[in-house]
């Protein structure tokens, strides 16, 4: 039974080694040993969860993804030294993991930057050092929440305004003294003297021009026979009512 399990793990490690630059040792009684040291790695490659020993020293790691080591439940030994870790908010996961697993860390990794904590062990970073990370995270989340609520409220307001506009009725009140107006009151407001183009052979007297102006003034601007139809269209098509007061 043990030999069959070992054979399966061996094949898994063989397939893993073909796509991963790290070296996997032969099976040991405790489990597979993975050596990823001195490979100029900028991130940790995918590793078998059965790994019991992991060597990542002397690479170019600046941070680790949160939860990276959580699946290595059988890890017995790890080395992370000689990496240029940048100790900002993204290093908080590694710091907390190292504090919980100090017994299996061969040599504690240190910060390379920023300069205020250079050469300082990552586990020596205090909780106060990461306090601004929590504030920034909360502020960012609150800002997103406020913006989302404002956008939702704006959409609701626009929909409500559209609904009100569709149901609105426009009423034009006409005073009682105007309810019996006649067509004569809607005369054209044209000037008394209009300029006209004359040809060289045509002559028009001043009296005839005055007569034409008088006819234009007497001609109604609106045919009152069409007024009921206009009012009916305004009411049915545009929901506009005209009533006398």
Automatic annotation (TrEMBL):
Top-rank lineage group of the source organism: Eukaryota
TM annotation in the entry: 141-162
Alphabetized UniProt keyword annotations: Cell adhesion, Disulfide bond, Leucine-rich repeat, Membrane, Signal, Transmembrane, Transmembrane helix
Membrane topology: Single-pass membrane protein
Pfam family, one: LRR_8
InterPro entries, per the entry: Cys-rich_flank_reg_C (IPR000483), GPIb-IX-V_Complex (IPR052313), Leu-rich_rpt (IPR001611), LRR_dom_sf (IPR032675)
Intracellular or extracellular location(s): Membrane
The name this protein goes by in its record: Glycoprotein IX (platelet)
Source lineage: Eukaryota, Metazoa, Chordata, Craniata, Vertebrata
């Amino acid at each position: 039974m043990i030999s069959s399990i070992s054979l399966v793990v061996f094949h898994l490690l063989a397939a893993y080694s073909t796509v991963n630059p790290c070296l996997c040792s032969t099976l040991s009684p405790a489990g597979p040993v993975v050596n990823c040291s001195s490979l100029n790695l900028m991130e940790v490659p995918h590793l078998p969860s059965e790994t019991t020993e992991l060597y990542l020293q002397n690479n170019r790691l600046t941070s680790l993804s949160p939860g990276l080591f959580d699946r290595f439940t059988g890890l017995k030994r790890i080395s992370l030294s000689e990496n240029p870790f940048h100790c900002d908010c993204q290093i908080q996961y590694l710091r907390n993991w190292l504090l919980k697993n100090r017994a299996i860390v061969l040599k504690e990794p240190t910060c390379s930057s920023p300069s205020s904590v250079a050469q300082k062990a990552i586990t020596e970073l205090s909780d106060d050092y990461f306090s601004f990370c929590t504030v920034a995270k909360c502020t960012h989340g609150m800002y997103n929440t406020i913006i989302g609520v404002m956008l939702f409220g704006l959409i609701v307001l626009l929909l409500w305004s559209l609904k009100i506009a569709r149901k609105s009725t426009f009423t034009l009140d006409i005073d009682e003294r105007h309810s019996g107006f006649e067509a004569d009151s809607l005369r054209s407001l044209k000037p008394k003297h209009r300029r006209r183009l004359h040809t060289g052979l045509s002559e028009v007297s001043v009296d005839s021009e005055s007569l034409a102006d008088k006819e234009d003034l007497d001609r109604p601007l609106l045919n009152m026979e069409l007024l009921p139809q206009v009012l009916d269209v305004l009411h049915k098509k545009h929901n506009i009512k005209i009533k006398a007061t």
